[in-house]
Design goal:
single chain, alpha+beta, globular, 151 residues, Cytidine Deaminase, domain 2, five-stranded mixed sheet
């Protein structure tokens, strides 16, 4: 037992007042919120964001999950749910941008959405939507019926 260390794991949640929090009711609300918080690199490099919601679909906050290059970024579902669990989220919305301006989801976009949706069901933090955004508009997986609830 000589020279062994015990690491402390600390979970810290400090919510602000719930009054005045933005309520997300649809994909357009989500897009307008994301346009306010997205980095200045929306047309330059791909980024992946998480929005954490409470039971009333009010935004607890957002987190930048990954920043990549011109044509992609690495998305680790464990980081998404680590963040959502720490925020005490009841549901999540994910989003990423396509610097090309193309709103069509790639096969990889569809695959990661399914994986995150499955994990959300298990963790009781459902994925409400996944948006692909550009300066000029968005694509909503939810609006297009691409979020399967049958897992």
């Amino acid at each position: 037992m000589k020279n062994q260390y015990i690491a402390e794991i600390e979970i810290n949640y400090k919510p602000k007042s719930l009054s005045g929090l933005l309520k997300i009711s649809n994909s357009n609300d989500t897009y307008l919120y994301l346009k306010k918080v997205w980095s200045k690199h929306i047309n330059y490099k791909e980024e992946f964001y998480l929005i954490c919601l409470n039971r009333a679909n009010k935004v607890l906050g957002y987190s930048v999950i990954s920043v990549g290059g011109i044509s992609g970024c690495v998305v680790d579902p464990r980081i998404i749910f680590q963040t959502a669990l720490k925020a005490n989220a009841s549901a999540i919305i994910i989003a990423h941008n396509h610097p090309s301006g193309n709103l069509k989801p790639s096969d990889q976009d569809i695959k990661i959405t399914k994986n995150i949706s499955k994990a959300g069901v298990i963790l009781q933090q459902p994925l409400l939507d996944h948006l692909i955004i550009t300066d000029d508009g968005y694509f909503s997986f939810g609006d297009e019926g691409l979020l399967s609830k049958d897992y």
